[in-house]
């Protein structure tokens, strides 16, 4: 997951618990009357949405924020018109403190999703390192290298590795390992697609508009032309950023952020029995709780509720999740993903 602001540890922010969540606000009134500038139907709305999100991705700073705000405004208007029935309208579980036993009764083992270990890529990384070492030995033997040549090759490899870590945050290594992982472990690509589809689907249902996504390090490099950008899903989170900067974070914004951050690891747990990816999401969330000076009990309560809420949404819309992951692997735009979600929610009484 990308795009949701990472708060610094020096932040002190008040939590405003009076604001309603989008799911409480939406879906309780009849559709608004359509104005002359409103989209005529869902298809025209998602075309406009893609144009605005594309502009937000191409522009810089102020221009990006204006385009993002316009996209969020369009989505909110689409909800008022009844065109986007699902945006921010996912039915949440009751907000209260849940125990670990209650999570287990709902078939959730927290220890299998809140401490993700990327065993798939770690195995690929180990194989690639062993292959590189074997290649060096073979080259030295076939070319009759002396000790000086072997040391020069070793120091050259170490220099490239350290330079990548310093200049690109390990982006070059991530690109190599991610690409090899897709070749050596076909299931890895499916896991990533489900993970990011979980982020996108939960975000949409809790009222955070997705802005863009990439499913591989190569996709991210080709889109952003930078090695230090990880693959993931980005969101229109300017409002959240402004709340954090202003020192007053709404309780509904905190709930939304927590659900979106945990949606990927919950997805992997539900689909594969254990979470491998998403360590960065969990660490970012932990950092925000520390910045907000949450006690451990308060942070645990927020996390357990969000885990249960994500699991409820993803189980309820499991078939839609399947289709969304497939659409994202095909490279569908965010607008097309929104259209897919809305088409599948037509006639759904329990969003």
UniProtKB/TrEMBL annotation:
Region (Disordered): 1-41
InterPro entries: Peptidase_M41-like (IPR037219)
Superkingdom as given in the UniProt entry: Eukaryota
Swiss-Prot/TrEMBL GO biological process terms: proteolysis
GO molecular function per UniProt: ATP binding; ATP-dependent peptidase activity; metalloendopeptidase activity
Bias (Polar residues): 7-32
Protein's recorded name: Peptidase M41 domain-containing protein
Lineage: Eukaryota, Viridiplantae, Chlorophyta, core chlorophytes, Chlorophyceae
């Amino acid at each position: 997951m990308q795009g949701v602001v990472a708060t610094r540890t020096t932040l002190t922010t008040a939590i405003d618990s009076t604001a309603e969540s989008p799911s409480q606000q939406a879906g309780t009134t009849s559709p608004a009357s359509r104005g002359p500038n409103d989209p005529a139907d869902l298809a025209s709305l998602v075309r406009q949405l893609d144009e605005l999100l594309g502009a937000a991705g191409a522009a810089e700073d102020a221009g990006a924020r204006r385009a993002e705000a316009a996209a969020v405004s369009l989505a909110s208007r689409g909800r008022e018109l009844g065109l986007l029935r699902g945006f921010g309208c996912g039915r949440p579980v009751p907000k209260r403190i849940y125990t670990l036993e209650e999570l287990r009764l709902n078939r959730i083992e927290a220890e299998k999703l809140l401490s993700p270990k990327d065993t798939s890529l770690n195995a690929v990384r180990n194989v690639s390192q062993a292959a590189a070492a074997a290649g060096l030995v073979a080259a030295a033997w076939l070319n009759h290298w002396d000790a000086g040549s072997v040391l020069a090759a070793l120091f050259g490899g170490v220099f490239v590795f350290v330079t990548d870590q310093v200049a690109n945050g390990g982006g070059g290594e991530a690109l190599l390992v991610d690409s090899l992982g897709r070749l050596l472990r076909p299931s890895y690509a499916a896991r990533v697609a489900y993970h990011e589809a979980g982020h996108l689907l939960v975000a949409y249902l809790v009222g955070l508009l997705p802005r863009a996504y990439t499913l591989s390090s190569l996709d991210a490099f080709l889109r952003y032309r930078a090695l230090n950008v990880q693959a993931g899903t980005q969101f229109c989170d300017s409002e959240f950023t402004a709340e954090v900067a202003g020192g007053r974070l709404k309780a509904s914004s905190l709930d939304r952020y927590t659900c979106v951050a945990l949606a990927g690891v919950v997805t992997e747990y539900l689909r594969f029995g254990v979470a491998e990816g998403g360590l960065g999401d969990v660490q970012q969330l932990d950092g925000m709780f520390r910045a907000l000076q949450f006690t451990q009990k308060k942070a645990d309560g927020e996390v357990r509720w969000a885990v249960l809420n994500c699991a409820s949404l993803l189980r309820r819309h499991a078939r839609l999740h399947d289709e969304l992951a497939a659409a994202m692997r095909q490279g569908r735009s965010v607008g097309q993903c929104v259209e897919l979600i809305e088409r599948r929610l037509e006639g759904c009484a329990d969003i």
